[in-house]
Amino acid sequence: MTALGKGLLVGGAILTPKLVDAAVLGSTDFGLAIIAANANGEAVAQSVDARHALCVTADRPAVQRGLCTVAINSAGRVDIFLNSRVAQRAGITFATAFRMMVHEQ
Amino acid sequence: MKLRRSCLAPCLTIAVVTVLSTGPRAQELDYGTLEQVFHEPVTTSATGQPQRASEAPVNMTIVTQDDIRRSGATTIPDVLQYVAGVDIRRYGIADAEVGIRGYNAAYNPRLLVLVNGRQVYSDDYGRVFWPTIPVQLAEIRQIEVIEGPNSALYGFNAVSGVINIITYNPLHDRINTVTLQGGTQHYWGGSAVATGQIEDRAGLRISVGGYQAQDYGPTNLSAVDAANRQNPLIGAFNVDGRLQVAPGVQAYIDGSMSDSRFAEMTFAGSFETNTTRANSIRTGLSADTPIGLLSVSAYRNGQELSIDSSAVRGIPSWVNESVYIVQANDLLKLGADHVVRVGFEYRNSAETSPGFIGGTIGYQVFAGSLMWNWQISPSVALTNAVRVDELQLRYSGNLAAGTGFTVADYNSTNLAVPSFNSGLVVSITPEDTVRFMIARGVQVPSLFDFGVQIPFGAIGPVVVAGSPDVHPSTVDNIELDYDRALPALDSGLRVAIFAQRNRDLISQPFAVPPVIGPTGLPLLLTSNVGSSSAAGAQIGVKGHSDSGFRWNVSYAYVATTDNTILNRGGLITSAINYASSAPRSVGIAGIGYTRNRWELDLMGRWQSSYQDFRASLNNPFLLEPVEVRNYLTLNARAAYRLTDNFTVQVAAQQFNVSRLLQTAGPLVERRVLFGVTAGF
After folding, report:
1. Rounded to 5 degrees, what are φ and ψ at B8?
2. Which residue in A14, A79, A98, A104 has the most chain B C-beta atoms within 10 A of its own C-beta, making it the best mutation to test that interface?
3. Is B635 left (phi over 0), alpha (psi -120 to 50) or beta?
4. pLDDT at B68
5. Cβ of residue B249 closer than 8 Å to a chain A Cβ
């Protein structure tokens, strides 16, 4: 969380990080969730889907299992993995060029 | 299993930006962010889709803005001299020829040079007027050097390779800089780049620059050549505007003008001074739609060339050229593993010259292309591309008598020219990547090859003419590359081996053996003159350390054999003598260090001997060889940042020797340049 500091500037908007316990995610309003490796699960996935939010994690198996949308592997070579079924479930559409730069399943 | 801190912000930016319905889409994501994410340069030029350089199905070297700045170079060819496999012939301060993997010559017609996808070579001879390229070094984000034939991926003239110059995007990159330089050879030059932006909606970048100098002394040139050379005077202006029309929809318009005068070595081995006025205007639109990334662009390049040379005095020696190009592409991802690009291109080129053409020669080309990228598995990708160009030739004017050709012969000439590229990229491990490529590239005869018309008696007792019967030249290439990341050294290793065969080499008419034409007059006619084969290898390592050091070492070897009808019987008429007209071996090394406010770089380049040609003093239709012995050049640059926005530098080119025979042109002289750069 410290890496994001006071916020992440994306386009004209500043995304402000907030640390949230996975158990209370269902009652939290958010548009982007960065899920810790051990926190991915069905409850989190349902909360993310319900808010049409983007789920990002370093846990690639969770993305493969359909629990999160995007996995980013940044150890050594950087690779991004996208589960399009999860994206579709959450109503998220990715730009075509982005889909061409990632590993999609 | 944590996100690396250096990746987190850019990775999230990438991920978030691409799903925000009101924000820009990934196709407009700037190169800088993508480089931060993937820790390597990114390209969109090879297949149209954004790719990290290591995954592109071509042998691509990317020269970054940092590389350009640290080189201390003042011209693009001087920047390119440090790329393994690139051959540079320096005929003057402004005049240089650039070849890839051998096959270099004066007026080299085998290279496709682009600025943001717009061609900047001339259809006149297929050659590049490097000083007229309207781009300042400070506004270049990266130069992509693609080695090998790539006609199906890049289009016309990608015979030996492609130089793709990518400038900063004014929508994302705010470049405001002024540079002034002066030094030996009475060199004075400068450039200014300014960017204006309306946040995330529009951007406009304007650049202007130029230089003048006293060219290298003519000590080893003939009196005729010395008299024909004038000192370089170069100027260029460019404007580049981008507009975010709607989410996922971007429009652009750019235009340029350049005015240059410089001495140039010709294919005849003699010097002339060219005054060139070039301009361009382009507009285009790209949109992310449910049926893919649609893009359409249209542009016009214009060029007025005036040749000053004693060899053509008495002939109206001006050439006007225009080319109109319309391109449309759809880049579509099908499912998770397939990307397809369907492309269409229309080209209309025309060249008018009463002295050299006798009227107007031109062609229109309809081209269709198809690219298919198949991600077979997460670590294996196969790319196949095919392109077919349908060329329709046309001529109007007065053909030189004695060739037997009629205007109807020209206007009934149609050529269908297929080409293909195929590349398999295998990421064996996260550190090891192998590329295997096969390709057929095509060199279409230039307008000059088709249409030159010089009547009997104009320059000698011979008719010199182009031919509508000349065939396109083809080059078949097979190549294996291996990239190895060396994370412990923050370095990367690349090894490449290749073999290629060129068929139906095209020779301009002055170089072919004379024949007796149908009316009994001696005739020099553009012809296909034979074949040539080449094989070679390259190895290079490039890296840096956290302590501020950077280094690169590379070696390139190419061996070429020719089988042509040229230069028989002891008479040398043609510079097409590829077996000996490029150095077989080139070694490059560089080391640099950045600490606090200092930036220090030392670069060396050694090449083996080769043979250049110059015009015979006894017979203007003959050439005589000039043996260029192996040589080493050392360049250095030191820069000191006085403030965050103000830098002073000194660059020394070829500081190890004061004068050096590098070509059949003048001895290349040591240069020292002082400069100041202010950023805003």
Report:
1. -55, -55
2. A98
3. beta
4. 97
5. no
